[in-house]
Write a structure and sequence with these properties.
Shape: elongated
Helix content: 25-40%
Distance between the termini: 40 Å
Number of strands: 7
Strand order of the largest sheet: 5-4-3-2-6
Largest sheet: 5 strands, antiparallel
């Protein structure tokens, strides 16, 4: 797929937003996939994910919601899952520090807490491109 100037600008803007939330391998795959046969799908997915991240609640905005808090992102590896309800950036704006959400490390159950996105990425987790937002209560019920 040959990208128009507008599409290139969309990709660049989306990549900037996604950089702190997706590991380099997955991010590079998406950037290359935009140029391929299914390029429009990946362009749309990048823009969609960037929009989700930009609109996500920031720290403490879902405080007290418990099971009613909505998970906007889902990371996974093997039988472990992390569902992100809030994002937090460093005060200097240099990147993502942590997030808040539900972590299920595959031992049955799970818990709410702070989740360092950089550590997840360093552990080769994948961001679920097909995740639809769910409440923490819905996630617990499905588990």
């Amino acid at each position: 797929m040959k990208l128009s100037k507008e599409q290139k600008e969309q990709v660049i803007a989306a990549l900037k937003t996604l950089k702190g939330f997706i590991g380099p391998m997955q991010l590079n795959f998406m950037a290359e996939a935009v140029k391929g046969e299914e390029g429009q799908f990946f362009l749309d997915k990048m823009v969609e994910l960037a929009s989700v991240i930009e609109k996500m609640p920031k720290s403490y905005e879902t405080d007290g919601m418990g099971d009613k808090a909505v998970a906007h992102l889902h990371y996974f590896v093997k039988n472990m899952d992390w569902y992100i309800t809030e994002k937090d950036s460093d005060p200097d704006g240099d990147g993502q520090l942590q997030a808040f959400g539900w972590a299920d490390l595959g031992h049955g159950g799970g818990e709410l807490g702070y989740i360092p996105i950089a550590e997840l990425i360093a552990s080769n987790v994948e961001l679920d491109f097909h995740f639809e937002p769910l409440t923490i209560g819905q996630i617990k019920k499905a588990a």
